[in-house]
Amino acid sequence: MNVKQALSIPVLCAGLALSGQVLAESVMHSTPEGTTKFYPAHDSGSKSAAQVQQELDNFKRNPVSADGQYRYVGGDQGWALIPHEYAYRDGKWQHVDKLRHDTPAPSLDMTSEERKQRDALYQGG
Hints:
Elements: H1 2-24, E1 28-30, E2 36-38, H2 49-61, E3 70-74, E4 78-81, E5 86-89, E6 92-95, H3 112-122
Antiparallel strand pairs: 1-2, 3-4, 5-6
């Protein structure tokens, strides 16, 4: 019995050490608060810290999504939709917001591959 115990302790310690190494390389990490966070990759990006800080400062000055449709208001509301604004000027309705109005309309035509994927998703086959 003593031999089994003597051999099991180093094996157990080695297993714990190896599992710690594996978890350090994973994309899932637990924080001290108990929450779990997912990081898609640990690779360094192509941007410098100064570029990232500049992007963050720009976003803080004007917290609008890339497409201009949402504004980050924070708190429980998070992202709020920015509606189009119109005003009656010079006898007609005109856009008075700062949103882009020259974006192309989405195409309703599907390729055969897109149609096949839609049918598989919504018709089960």
